[in-house]
Amino acid sequence: MPRFQANTLWRDAHYYRHPETGAFMPKYVLILAASLDAEDAVTAVLTSKPNGLRESPPCQLGEA
Q1: In b/e form, how buried is each residue of 17-27, taking b as 16+ CB within 10 angstroms?
Q2: What is the pTM of this model?
């Protein structure tokens, strides 16, 4: 199992499978916090894909 360190980037080479080819695809994960033994971590996944939130106005999370 990986040893996690807070405030670092971790590249998971097999994060998900491509829906058409079935090939494993990588993803970068930001390690936000790690347990004292470095076996568990709180992470944020970095993506360049749209997330469904509005872009205009920025930071609008829902209906006002």
Answers
A1: eeeeeeeeeee
A2: 0.55
